[in-house]
Amino acid sequence: MCGMPSAETTHVKPEEPEQVRPTREDKVAAAGSEFLGGPIGWRALTGRSWWTPVRVIALVMIGMFALGMVQKFPCYDGAWFYGASSQYTHACYSDIPHLYQGRGFADGLIPYFDRLPGDMEYLEYPVLTGVFMEVAAWLTPGSGTIQHQEQVYWMVNAGMLMICAAVIAACVARTHRRRPWDGLLVALAPAFALTSTINWDLFAVALTAAAMLMWSRGRTLAFGILIGLATAAKLYPALLLGPLFVLCWRAGKWREFAVAAFGAVVAWLAMNLPVMLMAPDGWSKFYTFSQERGVDFGSFWLVISQHMDTPLDTDVVNTLASALMVLACLGVAALALTAPRRPRFAQLAFLVVAAFVLTNKVYSPQYVLWLIPLAALARPKWRDFLVWQACEVVYFLGIWMYLAYTTSGDKHQGLPTDGYQAAVIIHLLGTLYLCAIIVRDIWLPERDVVRRSGDDDPSGGVLDGAEDRFVFGHAAYVAWEKEHEAEPPPPVNWGKDPDGSL
């Protein structure tokens, strides 16, 4: 038939899932798309344009990362070296240049093996992050003044972290097959650009994002290996095994969880065991430092301590914070097993990591990087995401202005203690707000943006579309009601005897 296109000439491949268009379901996304050329067009949807979603998102991420680097230029030009308070008033502080000399990289010391001068003794970072820092030191020329070397060291690290940022954006865009444009939430997140080069967290975040992508594709062993590597770079990725355990329990996917956990343990040991055996004191420094560290910036524990005559004892805070984290994890597990529909993996992952940073004795501004990719997968709604990001930007400015106030002497330039405490409360409430929205989505699946578009758990891999094997409470009642609603009513006995006679 002349007027009908054949299967070979159609522009959309039958096996490719139809993309969800955020500009149709999200008013904020529709309004914001005008800055990027308007809603998505036919050529992008059919794949006939070079500008695929992943490429666009990766380039946007690189552009935003570059803007974040520009924001640090006042410090690059001298505030890191010549003025303690000016790096705070310009809100451009970074650990990276300070630790180049402070942790022995300028002197060629080997992390974990060579003892540092001063009280720190050894590098206080996990092994794989130490490797990242050491590789950047190898790429930094040892000529010129120490200030010049620190500038180059920061630039080298920024280049390596930019690659991590592009990986994160690409992985998030590909995790939900039908929702690639949700990756723009990560690429355009203001807190991401502002905090990317404060520390080395992006390396662990990139490994975690890659792990989430592997799990969504059903590659359980690759997921486990990447989670193990991420945990060797930062502790928080190990938390994702908790919600995965509960979800696999509910779905009866014990083999898949065992493979993932095995891969994680083996990968973590492969990175840590050599240093653990050859330099046990240096290897354990990260864990002893985390235990002995007192209440610090960004946490509600600091706000409480600042209102007390005697600061809280570190051991007491460790015990209370651990207890609160255990209670939060039990609450998340109970939610996962009693919800009317099995929660999505990304939803529980966000809740557990958020519980960790909320109950921790320190909530550094760069910790928001841990949450941003998970938030984009758990609640891809621009309004809620931007409300949370606004709270994080308030805190980002608040902590530097508070440090400026405490380091400016009699000038008192910056934010006093009461103002800083308000900033802390705002950013804690912002995270709690997003947690509450996600809990509501779990308990009322019809409010979930992802499930409203017809998906079950696109980041869930083997969990996507799987039937429940173990539930209790409200979920058990819903399952029983669903099972019996299709059964025909029992036949009516009109007074006949069993043999059919009257």
TrEMBL record:
Residue span of region Disordered: 1-24, 482-502
Bias kind Basic and acidic residues: ranges: 10-24
GO molecular function, a single term: hexosyltransferase activity
Chain segments annotated as transmembrane: 50-70, 152-173, 185-215, 221-245, 257-280, 316-339, 385-403, 423-443
GO cellular component, one term: plasma membrane
Name of a matching Pfam family: GT87
Domain of life where this protein originates: Bacteria
Compartmental location: Cell membrane
Keyword Amino-acid biosynthesis: no
Membrane topology: Multi-pass membrane protein
Keyword Transmembrane helix included in the entry's annotation: yes
Keywords: Cell membrane, Membrane, Transferase, Transmembrane, Transmembrane helix
Stated family: Belongs to the glycosyltransferase 87 family.
Protein name listed in UniProt: DUF2029 domain-containing protein
Organism annotation: Streptomyces xanthii
